[in-house]
Structures are given as structure tokens and as C-alpha cells.
Design goal:
5-stranded antiparallel beta sheet, SH3 type barrels, alpha+beta, 21% helix, 70 residues, 46% strand
Length: 70
Amino acid sequence: MCVGLSAKVISVKDGVAVIDASGAKREVSAELLDDLEPGEYVMVHAGAAIAKITDDSKSETDSLVKEHLT
């Protein structure tokens, strides 16, 4: 099973996005997604933003992760 984390995009430059995942800021590859903008939410796996998600999807994902890891 693969686990992806939801995160908010803070900035994007030259194929690299700075994301905020529950307060932890990280740089990830943004090469897989077109037209990624600050303020959008993404699913991150293995150091890459792999999909854009909605705020509702982020909340649901965070809830599920919390439920299964506690």
C-alpha cells in the first residue's frame, strides 16, 4: 500500500513546489502537474506532487490518516 499526504502549495518555481503539510514545509517535485498555483492542494508521494485535490478531499484525507495512525 502506498501512502500519500495532502499538502497546500506555498510557492512554485522551476518545477519545484514548496508545500505545507500540517505545518511541515518541504520542497517537492511539481513536474507531474501542469499549472500548479500557490494556494492549491496536492497529494504528495515519494517527494513529488502527484495530483491536485480539493480542500474537501484534503480534509477527508487528513481525517482518514489520523484515524488509522492513532
